[in-house]
Amino acid sequence: MATATDIHDVTITIHPDQYPLAEGRWDCYVLSRRTGHRHRLACHLAEQTHAVHRLPRTVDPAVTATLPYTTTDGYLAIRAWQRPSHAEVTSIRASATGYHVAAELLAPGPGEDLQHASVVAVSRQDESKDFILPISQLAPARFSFHIPYDAVLQRSRTEHDQWDLRLHHGPHAAPVPIGRIAGDIVDRRTTDLIPAHQVPAISQTNCIKPYFTVNNDLALSARGIAE
């Protein structure tokens, strides 16, 4: 009978074209042909250097990125992103009035039209708190937008408000996620930390900052901190 100790060194090659993975996290197993039992693969090192500075693949019909990683309990897994289009954040800069974000729209096939596009901040609490951020087109697929502190404060009505940022580029087009799925980092919540901007108020300090979610998508947080 095959057991986990019967398996030693295993080489696994997964080509994105041959095995397209739906967006999510995939655990890796070895399946015994003799018993039909599967054994999860332990992983001491998931080589990620090849992915440094690598952009997502834009092959019809989707924008995709895959990255192997070692789980917190020591097993091999693959993080996969697959979406019809995606806006990759290239920079985030804080100014005296707000955050300035630059991004590049990635999509298979012909370039997307950004002439009438805008970024929408979608509230997780109440759709009445949604607000629109106009974009500036820098190149055929590159754009930037500004997140004013005042616009956030006007809509922050609870102890902690959060918004997801999406690119809208047409009445019939699906919203496009904005985030960072390029490169060699599986979870940017603890690596791409953006300094918070604090606005003093009468009874509290309002702490505003963009951040990356568990899916590496860009979001916005406004939190009230009691004095």
Q: How would you describe this structure to a colleague?
A:
The protein is mainly beta. 3% of the residues lie in helices and 45% in strands. The protein contains one helix and 16 strands. A seven-stranded mixed β-barrel has the order 7-8-11-10-9-12-13. It has a four-stranded antiparallel beta sheet with strand order 1-6-5-4, with no helix packed on it. It is globular and about 65 Å long.
Q: What key phrases describe this protein's structure?
A:
single chain; 227 residues; mainly beta; seven-stranded mixed beta barrel; four-stranded antiparallel β-sheet; 16 strands; 3% helix; 45% strand; disordered N terminus
Reading the helices and strands in chain order gives: EEEEEEEEEEEHEEEEE
Mean pLDDT comes to 88
The stretches of 5 or more residues where confidence is low (pLDDT under 50) are 1-6
Radius of gyration: 21 Å
* Number of H- or I-type helical stretches: 1
Distance between the termini: 64 Å
Main sheet?
A: 7 strands, mixed, barrel
Residue share in helix: under 10%
Annotation, overall tally of beta strands? 16
Structural class: mainly beta
